[in-house]
Design brief:
This protein is an all-alpha fold. It has one domain. It has 4 helices and no strands. Keywords: Cell membrane, Cell projection, Cilium, Cilium biogenesis/degradation, Membrane, Transmembrane, Transmembrane helix.
């Protein structure tokens, strides 16, 4: 009975749960301050991004906890995909797009959030790989034992 969940991934998820509200408050406060000087399309993009990131992050962290602690491959794969596809590109957009008039505090929290996401993508990939290989091996052994029991004995 080997434990397949990843302690570094779980620690990262734990700290991310506490960091996300801090990130959200800083980002919304700075968005409120710079909103009047932004162009109309950046206003729309930033509000949409905040809504998207907020909803996705709650779902992503839940799937990460369930997938890692309960060793469930579909949930952990969902966590990995939500981290890799919407979250990481959006944070990198917020970090590197100079048209957004990025404040230094905003850049700092985006860097920390991007570091969390990058580490979680890598850690979740290796955890998923280990879980899938172990579960496939267990399945093959179970099938082998079932076939052994069904095979007629000599004589």
């Amino acid at each position: 009975c080997e434990i397949l969940s990843s302690l570094p991934l779980q620690m990262s998820l734990y700290f991310n749960v506490y960091f996300f509200p801090f990130w959200w408050l800083i980002t919304v406060a700075i968005l409120y301050l710079k909103y009047p000087v932004l162009s109309d399309y950046y206003k729309f993009i930033l509000v949409t991004i905040m809504i998207l990131v907020s909803l996705t992050e709650v779902i992503r962290l839940y799937l990460g906890y369930v997938g890692n602690l309960l060793e469930k491959v579909p949930e952990l794969a969902g966590f990995w995909l939500l981290t890799l596809l919407p979250q990481l590109p959006v944070i990198l957009f917020l970090l590197f797009n100079e048209g957004l008039k990025i404040h230094s505090l905003e850049r700092a929290v985006h860097i920390v959030f991007a570091a969390f996401l990058s580490f979680q993508v890598i850690a979740a990939f290796f955890t998923l790989k280990r879980m899938v290989n172990t579960l496939a091996t267990r399945f093959r052994l179970t099938e082998f034992h079932r076939l052994e029991e069904q095979r007629p004995g000599p004589g």
